[in-house]
Amino acid sequence: MSSLIPTIEHTHPDFLVVYKPAGVHFHSQDGNAGLVAKLEAQLGESLYPVHRLDTPTSGLVVLARHPAAAATLTEQFTAHQVEKRYLALSTQKPKKKQGTIKGGMAKARRGAWKLTQERENFAITQFISHSLRPGVRAFLLRPRSGRTHQIRVALKSLGAPILGDALYGGDEADRTYLHAWSLGFDWQGEWQQFWLSPRQGEVWGEELAPLLSQWQSNDPDWPQN
């Protein structure tokens, strides 16, 4: 399916910015080539992952093109110096419309994770939300840490699991509606900023574009609590 083919959105001598479709594994598994392997075969060069996206998540990924760039980018991601913005949809009403979700992350059952009161593996996610249409709410999320399933667990904790995310109780849909919309980071003294609107999923709808334009032109005052 053409919708499952990764595409290169920006080429730099030191890194690539790539679109990962929903449903594409990041790493190779079960005998199938993952995102990185597919692009290495396409380009005929080695690529170095510096962060990752869950299989159901679509959106922007940075891949370093040599070990020195990989070390620098990994350091930035580890130090939370990369500005990330995610989009999500839910059909459930959240406990609050904006705020910050904090807590430790611990393994639960069936490969899921859960929030705890502990400080171990601590996760922080800021979010705002907006009614997209009756019965569908859009979330703009800013993770301040990089934990496994962080955003998926955060929205479940609000009582608004992501649409299509069966692992966390989301309503059935044609995909999991979580998308890595934006990445921004400093590179050799110049700020690099990349945006990519969702390409898969019927439920995003035409109402999303003006909302994204508003969020992109005026970064919101992110809630602290």
Write out key terms for the chains shown.
Pseudouridine synthase; alpha+beta; 225 residues; globular
Helix-strand blueprint:
Elements: E1 7-11, E2 15-20, H1 35-43, E3 48-49, E4 58-64, H2 67-78, E5 83-90, E6 98-107, E7 113-116, E8 122-133, E9 136-143, H3 150-157, E10 178-187, E11 190-195, H4 208-217
Parallel strand pairs: 4-10
Antiparallel strand pairs: 1-2, 2-4, 3-4, 5-9, 5-10, 6-7, 6-8, 8-9, 10-11
What does this structure look like?
With 225 residues, the protein is an alpha+beta fold. It has helices at 35-43, 67-78, 150-157, 208-217; strands at 7-11, 15-20, 48-49, 58-64, 83-90, 98-107, 113-116, 122-133, 136-143, 178-187, 190-195. It has a single domain (2-217), classed as 2-Layer Sandwich (Pseudouridine synthase). It is 17% helix and 35% strand. Strands 1, 2, 3, 4, 5, 6, 7, 8, 9, 10 and 11 form an eleven-stranded mixed sheet that branches. β8 (122-133) and β9 form a beta hairpin. The longest helix is centred in the N-terminal third of the chain and has 12 residues, at 67-78. The chain is globular and about 45 Å long. The termini are far apart. The relative contact order is 0.17.
